[in-house]
Structure formats: structure tokens, C-alpha cells
Amino acid sequence: MSKSTSKASAKPKLQRKARPTQTPEIEEPTIASPTERVIAIVYDGMLILALLFLVGTVLTVIGTLLTMQTGTESAQAQSLPTWYQNFIMTPSFILTLVGFYGLFWRRSGQTLGMQTWRLKTVNNSGHLLTWKQSFRRILAACLMPLLCGLIGSLIGGSRAVLLLSAVFGLMFNYIFCLFNRRGIAVQDMLSNTITLKMPKQQHEGLWSGFKNRKKNK
């Protein structure tokens, strides 16, 4: 074998330079839009109405058995006592509402309707809400509907006017987002919380949130 061929074989083979891998851009959570938040409320509202109907039915049966004499004719039908409606049924409805949102917000920051649209409610530090923060947020969300409903009842006096005024107060909470520099709602501002639109790759479903919390424990 000649010297030229031995030198050629001794030369190391040149390796192709690896192309730099492009890392996918990580999307950041953004402020949830008013439209998506209202749609999520409509989703949750169906479940909440079913829960309130169930609670109301159970309490009505209990109240009828405890406070009223049952008759056999429709003319003997009576309404539940006012004290029972005000001090038993109304607080029970409020506790049902607080329990519904508080449970989901504490566990994963998402109700079923919010999970559909990848929305998540956290405090200003980015952590899940406590029971106290959840209760404060619910009260803040009810402030404008109660105030508008009160004004409507004073002006019109009918139930229809009161209901329409309360619905306007609820919508005002989210219309406020359009005029707020940060794009947050009234209840966000009053309770120091925020509702975010989560990106797809960072989105964690409701049941996944439950499982992960159990594993961490």
C-alpha cells in the first residue's frame, strides 16, 4: 500500500453539523376576554340552577313536614312561613353557590364551564384561591347586580324590572373589562383576583388537577 493511500485513510471523516433544534415558543397566559367569561357563566349556570332546584325541593319538603299541616285538597295548600324562607332557604341557596365555586376554585381554579374555555381564576400572586378569597370574590360579583336590582325595584317595583336590573348589573361586571386598562372585571378588582386564559400546552384539566393534588399529598 502506498504512502498516499495510507495518509488518505488516516484522515478522520468529517461529521455534518447538526442543525440547531428550534424550541417551541411557550405561550403565556393572558387576561380572559369578557365574552368567554360570560359564556362560561352560562355553562355553569345550568348546573347551578339544577343544584338550587334540588336544594329548594328538599328544603320545601322538609319545611312542609315540619311547619305546615298537609291537607287533601288544593284549596288547603299553604305557603311556607316567611321566617323559614328567609332564614333557612335563602342562606342554603347562598351556601350552595359559595360551595360550588369555592370547591372548584380551591381545587383547580376552574369550574366545569371555565375548563371548557381554558379559563382559570387565581389570586394576584398566581396561587389558587382560599375559601376566604372565594367568598370575597362571590360577594364582589354580586355587588353590582344587588345594587342595580335595588334601584330597579325602587323605580319600577315589579319583579320583571328587578330581574332585568339585576341582569344588567351582572353584565356591567364584564362590560367594565372593556374600559379597564388591565381588562379585568369588577369582582377581580374588588377581590384581588384574576381570571386567565390558559394556553393549550399548559392547560390542566379539572380531573387532572384533582389527581395531581392527590399525588402531591
Give the helix/strand class.
Answer: mainly alpha
| Order of SSEs | HEHHHEHHHEH
Report the count of strand segments.
3
Using the alpha-carbon principal axes, give the shape.
globular
Q: Assembly type of the shown chains?
A: single chain
Our Rg estimate from Cα atoms comes to 29 Å
Query: How far is the first residue's CA from the last residue's CA?
Result: 72 Å
What level of helicity do the residues show?
Answer: 55-70%
Largest beta sheet, briefly? 3 strands, antiparallel
Low-confidence stretches are: 1-9
How much of the residues is beta strand, in percent? 5-15%
Overall pLDDT: 83
Across the major sheet, the strand order is 1-3-2
Walk me through what this model shows:
The protein is mainly alpha-helical. Helices cover 63% and strands 6% of the residues. The chain is built from eight helices and three strands. It has a three-stranded antiparallel sheet with strand order 1-3-2. Helix 3 (82-107) packs across helix 5 and helix 5 (131-155) packs across helix 6. The model is unreliable at 1-9 (pLDDT under 50).
